[in-house]
Amino acid sequence: MKNNAQLLMPREKMLKFGISALTDVELLALFLRTGTRGKDVLTLAKEMLENFGSLYG
């Protein structure tokens, strides 16, 4: 079973636990705000990080 942090969307998780509780995928998803047709924002953020590397340059 997933804990509460895993069930929250990135914005809600940030508000509840602070920005440092977010993964790179969740942080990027916050900036993107929405996904595309057929792809939610978390999936899009994950694919972007897999294709382009980390947020740390």
Shape: globular
Structural class: mainly alpha
Low-pLDDT parts are none
Number of strands: 0
Q: How does the major sheet shape up?
A: none
Compute the number of helices. 4
H-E string: HHHH
Q: Helix amount, in percent?
A: 55-70%
Radius of gyration computed on alpha carbons: 11 Å
Strand content: under 5%
Distance between the termini: 34 Å
Mean residue pLDDT: 89
Explain how this protein is built.
The chain is an all-alpha fold. The protein contains 4 helices and no strands. Helix 3 packs across helix 4. The longest helix has 12 residues. The model has no long low-confidence stretch (mean pLDDT 89). This is DNA repair protein RadC. InterPro entries: UPF0758 (IPR001405), UPF0758_N (IPR046778).
Name its key features:
57 residues, mainly alpha, 4 helices, 0% strand
Describe the SSE topology.
Layout: H1 4-7, H2 10-17, H3 24-32, H4 41-52
Helix pairs in contact: 3-4
Brief overview, please?
It comes from Shigella flexneri. This protein is mostly helical.
